[in-house]
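hiii so my PI (J.) wants the whole complex modelled not just the main chain, which honestly fair. so below is everything: two entries, each one labled with what it is. i double checked the lines twice but i was tired so who knows lol
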Amino acid sequence: MSDIIRKAPGLGDGETIEQTQSFLPKFGANGLIPAIVTDHKSGNVLMFAHMNEEALRKTIASGFAYFWSRSRSKLWKKGEESGNLLKVNEVRTDCDQDVIWIIAEVEGDGVACHTGATSCFYRRVVQGREDGTVLEHVALPRPLGHG
Amino acid sequence: MSDIIRKAPGLGDGETIEQTQSFLPKFGANGLIPAIVTDHKSGNVLMFAHMNEEALRKTIASGFAYFWSRSRSKLWKKGEESGNLLKVNEVRTDCDQDVIWIIAEVEGDGVACHTGATSCFYRRVVQGREDGTVLEHVALPRPLGHG
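here's the output for the full assembly
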């Protein structure tokens, strides 16, 4: 998979994006990087959104998650209005540094989704009776390993 | 946030994309939907990739994760060569059905990343001594809740 190994500005000689300890987040053509947020206790995925450089910088500096709202074209501090801020425990990046993983604790009511659900991922895909697949609502948080 | 509520083909009268039990995955302009994969036991995020409609359909039908490789422009059964297949425990979608979350078990060597790491997210962002942030390699799997 040598096509994945590429030079990025800031890499040392012979260093790859996979090995480096330099943080060189790769923003897409739209200036955004996808960010996954999971709950620090349950491990559930809470939400998925995008960050621009400012959102990522503010998230790391403040310890609270910021995103870029694509629908409203503005920086967005998650939970600023509701009080359900995302307190960041850890920020990770992946092998080619084009995705961010935030391990967080939800403050306020513990609600991460605009629908009022604990997590945005409150429905699972199951086989329907006649046609293909349907969605089933799941209770959240759900203990992991009991799928 | 009424701008998030929208009509999608297949929704019933007065039904929103957030409430429906119809599975109506929303693929982007490129025909792809982002997919997050977490480990069924540890809750760690293992990888992040994209699915086209065929990859999603095959994932649900076969119980093993398929993706669309953007770099190679082809369907890709994860682990087909290495034996590290992703056995799917659960498929979820989010409030507006434009993201997929796969809860999976890694077969073979239990390796999800092309680098040989258990997860692609093997580095966390930490404060450096002089300049801004650097990456620190973390041991994986890491027990959750001990951030």
